[in-house]
Amino acid sequence: MSSLHLVRASVPTPKVTLRHRLLDFVGRGPFLLMHLACLGVFFVPVTWTALAMCVAFYVIRMFGITAGYHRYFSHRAYKTSRIFQFILGFIGASALQKGPLWWASHHRHHHRHSDSELDPHSPVANSVWWSHVGWVLSRKYHAYDADSIKDFMKYPELRLLNFFHVVPGILLAVLCYWLDGASGLFWGFFVSTVLLYHGTFLVNSVCHIFGKKRYVTGDESRNNAVVAILTLGEGWHNNHHCYQSSANQGFFWWEVDLSYYTLKTLSAFGIVWGLRKPPLAKLPLLGQAKSDATPAAVSEPVVEAATEVVPQEVVKS
Ligand SMILES: [Zn+2]
Ligand SMILES: [Zn+2]
């Protein structure tokens, strides 16, 4: 699975020169300007429409990231049509967290090397700041390993979306302005997008530091209820690290997982299908006898499921 892309993504950052600093600044510019633009809310009227757009576009795009970029493109946790696959990618891209191929490739890398030196965003192997935003801003991860996402690389429309990944976000900004003028633009687009950035990033930072571990996973992944609420279910991160290809990350009824409820609803209409479920009885609970509780007991098929084209087991639910 090695490739030139992976080598480029894994080597240490070269010696920092003035040119590198300039490139870094240009690369970080849009991200920093998005934050700066939020100050605009102090100069425009606060309207109910704008606030509703802020919440709605946060929730819709969080679904694009969690159910689309994460559970579908990264883990193939369910199946869908080619058209809805593109729609998921388009909604995810409107969150301005780069393209679906870039996102899923780095995420698969995260699972293969969780909390080791090779993990792109571990708060354990690196700093909390690095895991939250540092790695996103670093030129080190601008490239991605095309080999690790070749199951989706074969779709030209996804490659195009991945290349023009800022277009859906720009269209959303125009829509916000059209719907409610400057108030719509600042609340519905800028504030909503920045909240979405940090909501998503909490999974990489907080969910590898704070929370409870239920399963043996060989890393520091945690279940965090607050993050689960903010991210439509992604906070059940220890569950997820234990059985990555599950469509639901909340494994029990009290583990709220709004992305999964939405996927279940979509499956009732035939829009998605083949939602995969975790084999709960087989998962290695912490505190079990060592022979029963090795991460290897589940990690191998899970990693396979996350990287191979054909899932090993599909449970229709
Ligand atoms: Zn993780
Ligand atoms: Zn994952």
Automatic annotation (TrEMBL):
<dbReference type="GO" id="GO:0016020">
    <property type="term" value="C:membrane"/>
</dbReference>
<keyword id="KW-1133">Transmembrane helix</keyword>
<dbReference type="InterPro" id="IPR005804">
    <property type="entry name" value="FA_desaturase_dom"/>
</dbReference>
<dbReference type="GO" id="GO:0006633">
    <property type="term" value="P:fatty acid biosynthetic process"/>
</dbReference>
<keyword id="KW-0408">Iron</keyword>
<protein>
    <recommendedName>
        <fullName>Fatty acid desaturase domain-containing protein</fullName>
    </recommendedName>
</protein>
<feature type="transmembrane region" description="Helical">
    <location>
        <begin position="185"/>
        <end position="207"/>
    </location>
</feature>
<keyword id="KW-0443">Lipid metabolism</keyword>
<comment type="similarity">
    <text>Belongs to the fatty acid desaturase type 2 family.</text>
</comment>
<dbReference type="GO" id="GO:0016717">
    <property type="term" value="F:oxidoreductase activity, acting on paired donors, with oxidation of a pair of donors resulting in the reduction of molecular oxygen to two molecules of water"/>
</dbReference>
<dbReference type="InterPro" id="IPR015876">
    <property type="entry name" value="Acyl-CoA_DS"/>
</dbReference>
<keyword id="KW-0812">Transmembrane</keyword>
<feature type="domain" description="Fatty acid desaturase">
    <location>
        <begin position="47"/>
        <end position="244"/>
    </location>
</feature>
<keyword id="KW-0276">Fatty acid metabolism</keyword>
<feature type="transmembrane region" description="Helical">
    <location>
        <begin position="160"/>
        <end position="179"/>
    </location>
</feature>
<dbReference type="Pfam" id="PF00487">
    <property type="entry name" value="FA_desaturase"/>
</dbReference>
<keyword id="KW-0560">Oxidoreductase</keyword>
<keyword id="KW-0275">Fatty acid biosynthesis</keyword>
<keyword id="KW-0444">Lipid biosynthesis</keyword>
<keyword id="KW-0472">Membrane</keyword>
